[in-house]
Design brief:
- The chain has two domains: 1-104 and 121-159; 169-284, Glucose Permease (Domain IIA) (Distorted Sandwich), CATH 2.70.70.10.
- It contains two helices and 14 strands; from the N terminus they run ββααββββββββββββ.
- It has helices at residues 24-100, 121-159, and strands at residues 4-9, 18-23, 169-172, 175-178, 185-188, 191-194, 200-202, 207-214, 220-227, 230-240, 247-248, 253-257, 267-274, 277-279.
- The strands form three sheets. Strands 3, 6, 7, 8, 9, 10, 11, 12, 13 and 14 form a ten-stranded antiparallel beta sheet that branches.
């Protein structure tokens, strides 16, 4: 026989009381259902909060990923800008080398292949950026060196004698000749250029006047120091147009053709000396001497 249970409800007001009868099995089923509902509610609540946490974590991850993408984009942009700058430097070096006639230092070739496994994207981009920066800095130093050498070369070109000091006819060249006064064989240190008296005599390169006065056999003479061990001398002038210490440029008038000193007629005696030794001036005349 099944065991039964009775629940009686007695109200306070005058009313009929109520009672329910149920078996142990029925009570067990009801309690089990309540337990299942409670457990289900707990699971639902836990799932709700867990889902909320997962969404927050996902949002944080997405934000971090976006930040990383922005950083990577910044690196890529910096690398592109540096590569453009690198190309400009390389072009400038090539142009300077051509103009200056200099040999550019060899650029670093391909490196060996091997090493560790590839680094993460961020580390890779940072490494590439540092590598480009080093190359750009090296090229910048190369350009500065080329510019300095070009400036030195330009100064030397400007200072080196390169034109005829006066237009005329060469009456006596550099080397041994018959001396017009002693009639003996003697060495002639320069060129004698015949020209009318008073014709302008011009500096053949940029320099500083070291002497402008009457000087023995050369008569009225001007000496110009061009630097780099090069000097020029202009003799037998009728008149001097410069003073010692004065800076002259190529083509500046320094005096006028004459017949002063040990001379047989109007002409210019022109000398070029390198490290104190006379050399053939014709090697330093790039234009025509003839008027």
């Amino acid at each position: 026989m099944k065991q039964q249970h009775t629940i009686i409800v007695v109200p306070h007001a005058r009313a009929k009381f109520r009672k329910w009868r149920f078996t142990t099995l029925q009570a067990s089923l009801v309690l089990g259902a309540l337990a299942l509902l409670t457990i289900g509610g707990l699971i639902a609540t836990i799932s709700f909060f867990a889902t909320t946490i997962d969404r927050r974590q996902l949002a944080n991850l997405e934000q971090e990923n976006e930040q990383l993408r922005q950083v990577n984009h910044g690196f890529e942009q910096s690398i592109r800008e540096l590569e453009d700058q690198l190309e400009d430097y390389q072009k400038s070096i090539r142009e300077l080398a051509i103009v200056a006639g200099l040999t550019v230092l060899p650029q670093s070739g391909e490196t060996g292949i091997g090493g560790l496994a590839p680094a993460p994207a961020g580390d890779f981009l940072a490494g590439e950026l540092r590598s480009v920066e080093v190359r750009v800095d090296g090229l910048r130093q190369g350009i500065e060196a080329l510019q300095q050498k070009l400036a030195e070369r330009t100064l030397r070109i400007a200072a080196t004698p390169a034109i005829a000091p006066v237009k005329g006819l060469i009456s006596s060249g550099f080397g041994y000749r018959r001396d017009p006064f002693t009639k003996k064989r003697a060495f002639h240190n320069g060129l004698d250029i015949i020209a009318p008296r008073g014709r302008e005599v011009r500096a053949t390169g940029e320099g500083i006047v070291t002497r402008a006065m009457r000087t023995g056999a050369l008569g009225n003479a001007v000496y110009v120091s061009h630097g780099y061990g090069i000097t020029t001398r202009y003799g037998h002038l009728s008149r001097i147009a410069v003073k010692p210490g004065q800076t002259v440029a190529r083509g500046d008038v320094i005096g006028y053709v004459g017949n002063s000193g040990r001379s047989t007629g109007n002409h210019l005696h022109y000398e070029v000396r390198v490290d104190g030794k006379p050399v053939d001036p014709r090697a330093y005349i790039l234009n025509s001497i003839r008027p």
